[in-house]
Amino acid sequence: MLSNTCKYAIRAIIYLAINKGDEKKIGIKEISKELDIPTPFLGKILQSLAKHKLLTSTKGPHGGFGFARPVNDISLYDIVTIIDGRDLFENCLIGMQPCKSNEEDSLRCPVHDQFSEIRAKLLDLFKNETIGNIVSKMDGKLDFFKL
């Protein structure tokens, strides 16, 4: 459902939330090493999140990434829509173009009604689950990072 790029983005933001401390920036190399994500690829992901004002980015010897807003104000929905777009929440599950959330019976795919309910629940989950909430539920279980 989520691209690997999106999963990397979520893991990186959780890592930052757990390790940032007050006003601390974390360098790309540290994040890359700890999460086993190629540095150039992770750099592009984090720059995209900074461009969309989820993160801040500072260059230089004491540079790195931090948060542009509180982690309790960053939802999974924010991250997913920046990285993967809104397809998960809008497009047909089985890829039928005319379906695409269409309410006209003749244009709906065979699984439209069932998936509409699931999509609504997913949308609610992703909009209401924040990074701060996820971190509080992890309770120091950092072994989740090495997937």
UniProtKB/TrEMBL annotation:
GO molecular function: any one? DNA-binding transcription factor activity
**Which protein is depicted?**
BadM/Rrf2 family transcriptional regulator
Q: Which organism is it from?
A: Breznakibacter xylanolyticus
Q: What NCBIfam families does this protein's entry cite?
A: rrf2_super
UniProt cross-references to InterPro entries, sorted A to Z: Tscrpt_reg_Rrf2, WH-like_DNA-bd_sf, WH_DNA-bd_sf
PANTHER family the UniProt entry points to: HTH-TYPE TRANSCRIPTIONAL REGULATOR YWGB-RELATED, WINGED HELIX-TURN-HELIX TRANSCRIPTIONAL REGULATOR, RRF2 FAMILY
Provide a GO CC annotation, any one.
cytosol
Segments crossing the lipid bilayer? none
